[in-house]
Amino acid sequence: MRLLRKPVKDINSIKIAVDFDGTIVEHQYPEIGKEKLFAFRTLKELEKRGARLILWTIRTGKELDEAVEYCRRNGIEFYAVNKNYPEEIFDETVSRKIDADIFIDDKSIFGFQGWSEVWQVLFPFELEQKEAEKRISSARKSVFSRFLSRILGSDEK
Question: Which one of 39, 74, 102, 145 counts the least CB within 10 Å of its CB?
Answer without folding.
Answer: 145
